[in-house]
Amino acid sequence: xxxxxxxxxWLSDSPNEINEYGxxxxxxxxxxxxxxxxxxxxKSDYAxxxxxxxxxxxxxxxxxxxxxxDEYYLQANKGKNVLAVSALSKNYSTASHIANGKGIIxxxxxxxxxxxxxxxxxxxxxxxxxASGNLPYITPQLGMSFKYDFRAQDxxxxxxxxxxxxxxxxxxxxxxAPRPVKKLDASNSVPFLSSGxxxxxxxxxxxxxxxxxxxxxxxxxxxxxxxxxVIDGGVRRTIHERDFSVKFVLKKGRNVFREYFLRFGLRYxxxxxxxxTVNFLGVNEAVYPHEYKxxxxxxxxxxxxxxxxRTLDCCIHEHYEDCPWREQAQYAMDxxxxxxxxxxAFGETQMPAAALRAMAHRLTSKNALPITSxxxxxxxxxxxxxxxxxxxxxxxxxxxxxxxxxxxxxNTRAMLEHYIASVRNGLIPTLAEWNFFEWEEGxxxxxxxxxxxxxRDKYSLPVNAFAVxxxxxxxxxCDVLGYDSGVGERYRALAENLRECARTVFCGNDxxxxxxxENGELRHLSEYTQVLALYSEIAKKEExxxxxxxxxxENDLVPLTVSNYIFKYEVLFEEGGYExxxxxxxxxxxxxxxxxxxxxxxETIKGARDFGGAGSLCHGWSAVPxxxxxxxxxxxxxxxxxNQTVSVSGACGGGAAVGSVVADRA
Length: 666
Fold this sequence. Notes:
- 27% of the residues lie in helices and 27% in strands.
- The protein is of the alpha+beta class.
- It folds into three domains: 8-133 and 151-178, Galactose-binding domain-like (Jelly Rolls, Sandwich), CATH 2.60.120; 185-287, Galactose-binding domain-like (Jelly Rolls, Sandwich), CATH 2.60.120.260; 302-661, Glycosyltransferase, CATH 1.50.10.
- Helix 5 runs parallel beside helix 7 and helix 7 packs parallel to helix 9 (527-535).
- It starts with 7 loop residues before the first strand and ends in a 33-residue tail after the last helix.
């Protein structure tokens, strides 16, 4: 049992509905110096101190129905000891946080006995230094910025403070679980070097927490901006509605700061004024600890491999992140690439297990995977939901762990049944979700972020290709878990139904696959679609050679982007004989980024100039060269046998195939 006698508590005077910083202060006595155990959990975030020294911080991103606690083994003194906890309760939702009220819970164990619990007797107060309430958003995905006032500092972390009163019990929820991944290491302080005019450069991408030592001759306001790129000699602070900055009020004299609640993704820092003395400015780098497999190959250059590993490092913290700068959100499709690369670069299996559990923990009201996890979003992306069953199969192949498969089985099945139930005329039509595929012409469907609507006479090959793969992989999961053979066979038959109908509908007279069929009309030729026709084996054996030749030579198709090159390379490794092409392709595309100053790999090949200047320069899905390096090192992954499929009569599920009404196959 944890927190058996502890209560969820918060401030008795709590004037802010959202974004409130609280401070909690309590003492405990020990007859002798001893090791203690501190267990702690916050509704949003926390930083804990024992006798003024940092004990731990960083709440795991979790769900309201199962809160994750941290456990620290610390040394305490004989006699009086002081536990001080700074806590943030957002109580608003972001891409990685579900609004869940306000609260903190903790306990201290010494010699097997509980010596301190959180309850209404714990003194607390509203933070004097951190401003609470509505503040500007950095981005909608990250949440609010912060403002800190050095003039209000006192000695509260060591018990020397006033303004505290008893806390109130704020919740009775009791389901807890230990942190499923390793704690971050934020012990390394990285100095940023002055480039003049208040601009500071770390020389490469980092993810970390702001820290500084600044002297001022008087009280002054200071804005600290951060980012991945500069424009006109300064950090690009504001991009559309985004504002990458935090604010301070400096006191006269020395101002020493370390942040615990907001992690920056950045290369540059900029100070709004130069009439101060900067003794130190930088970040405490946030590092997820893992082993590094030694890579001795040369098929992928050392420079490209190292930058790809650095990209992975910057995009893994409490969970996988698309990018450390702009969102810090866990998407299923992005995470698949990071997981596959992590298996190879780190031998990492703990974070994949936690990520896969989080993705399936909560489904939308339609039984799709939410766009990010954990989140309360009702927005979903069909291709991102449907890539989940292949991730389960890949995880089992890597670990042999059936427990996770069993734990997520029912929600995975519910998600698949949602898409199966939508089948019309043998295919999954365009559903009222965001039908995103990649950031290229005709493939991003960006307007659907704001308005999702079902289009019953519009079908896409990508959604159906991912569904084919998902159903096939889920059939294998059923077999692994020992379900009756009829369960797995049903999903294999459904996969074959979709495969045959998609082949009939989307393949034009020229042997190329179109992305869309709308009201019987085929349209849109892209490399992405040809790759998925190969990946899901929608393309017949006799069609494969033509498509393979097409995607490995210059063509006029809408090009593939870095986000989905992993599928292309998987197809080529599976086929065999394309290793030299892959080597050259990686050297060309990822080498281009290095030649243009990349220290981690970009969201798209356009870099910072994409998305109206909001292009991320560190994006997890672009770490593909790690996957390629290890596959080439072991000689590719051409298999001796294909996945088993089941031939069934009435291949289009009993309805008229959409292909029967295609008016123009050109």
